[in-house]
Fold:
Amino acid sequence: MATKTISLDEISQRGGDPDAISDRYHDQKPDSISVSWTDFVDTIQNEDDTIEYIDAIQEALATLKRRKRERDTAMPISALWETDTQQRLIAKYAFAIPPREALDYLIDQGPLVELGAWKGYWAYELEKRGGDITAYDIDPILDPWFPVQSGDQDVLLEYGEAETLVLCWPPVGSMAYESLLLHGGDVIYIGEHPGEGFKAFADMRFFDVLEARYEHVTQIDLPSHPGAKDDLHHYRPLD
Structure:
């Protein structure tokens, strides 16, 4: 691990004045609520079931469809899903669903350092496939999928530009924004963007800095739960 020193002036230059960086997102409202239930079912049925989260979703969908047929009820499967199964799967695995394409891409961008890793499910799937990843969370939970270490954005001072920073549904507040100020390398953000059904995570300064200070390299669409529109976005600092 490379030890990195950084000055307050450099931090200021990387972030700049959030009010002066970009007004693109400040007044933007969601255009629509993302994916439909039908789209989600069609997408997830074609995904790689060797990924444990996807296999669990496919099994849950099959069970819900069978129950609907047996009960001959008019209650939509989507309603059953949202009130029970969907929330239980999110609690067990993660908010964002990792397809094979996204995992392979992340592995190619390693070594990776993830902040706000929660249960470490994405890190687990990456390591299982040979990925090089270290994961942190400010409050690691018991019995995670992956050995998540205790740490916040300040741990980035221990890393150099060789590591790619991964932020998957970063928590509400300044953590994601401050991470950009402390990390000089590539960033991979997993979640929604303003105008795409934007939910409560990160803050607008984070998106402002990404827009103003980074080149958008790649976008990978992710299978998303109904009511969400998650994507993987790779950003590279501008010279």
